[in-house]
Write a structure and sequence with these properties.
The chain is an alpha+beta fold. The chain is built from five helices and four strands; from the N terminus they run αββββαααα. Strands 3-2-1-4 form a four-stranded mixed sheet. About 15% of the residues are buried.
Length: about 180
């Protein structure tokens, strides 16, 4: 709210009207920035969007299901281009859980406080990459010196020629004359 006195419409000057338009543009920019952040949050958590509020039928409502609880925001029609990745509301979507604005922002604070304990995507990739490397080494160790009767696997895993390899085209065994059949 402003403490400036109201100007009667008949007394509205061009300068006052320009100032009013600038304030409206600034408010639009703030809503657009908020919409970008909500779109990011919707990309990180299960979410859906639709015109579900009968008191604001021209505005969509995005509902985001987070570990801290449901959060929702009204989205201006001009910002809908930011939400093309969000699934539309359907029969199986859980509706609004009745949370208040205060509850929504408490949930956001809870989610923010929990964030340092969540693993980043890079950390998960590093852990999984290390596990994949470990498992590949274990497979190599377990199959070293064994013929699996498949040429590609046989050729890949015979680091040392294997005597008695039954595969007729085993390169490692054939090179030493140890192939069962040539």
């Amino acid at each position: 709210m402003t403490t400036q006195p109201r100007i009667a419409l008949d007394d509205l000057t061009s300068d006052a009207l320009d100032a009013l338009y600038k304030r409206a543009e600034a408010a639009d920019a703030v809503y657009r920035e908020r919409a970008h952040l909500v779109a990011l949050l919707a990309a990180l958590h299960p979410s859906y969007i639709g015109r579900t509020d009968p008191s604001a039928p021209d505005w969509a409502v995005v509902i985001i299901e987070t570990p801290a609880g449901q959060m929702s925001w009204h989205i201006a029609p001009r910002d809908m281009d930011l939400f093309t990745h969000v699934q539309p509301v359907n029969r199986i979507c859980r509706g609004w859980d009745g949370h208040t604005t205060d509850e929504k922002y408490q949930r956001m604070r809870d989610l923010t406080e929990a964030a340092p304990n969540l693993l980043s995507l890079e950390t998960v990739a590093d852990i999984q990459g290390g596990e994949i490397t470990r498992l590949n080494a274990e497979v190599h160790r377990l199959t070293l010196g064994q013929c699996t009767h498949a040429l590609a696997v046989c050729e890949q895993h015979h680091a040392v020629p294997v005597a008695g390899c039954p595969h007729p085209r085993c390169v490692a065994a054939r090179a030493t004359g140890r192939a069962a059949t040539a």
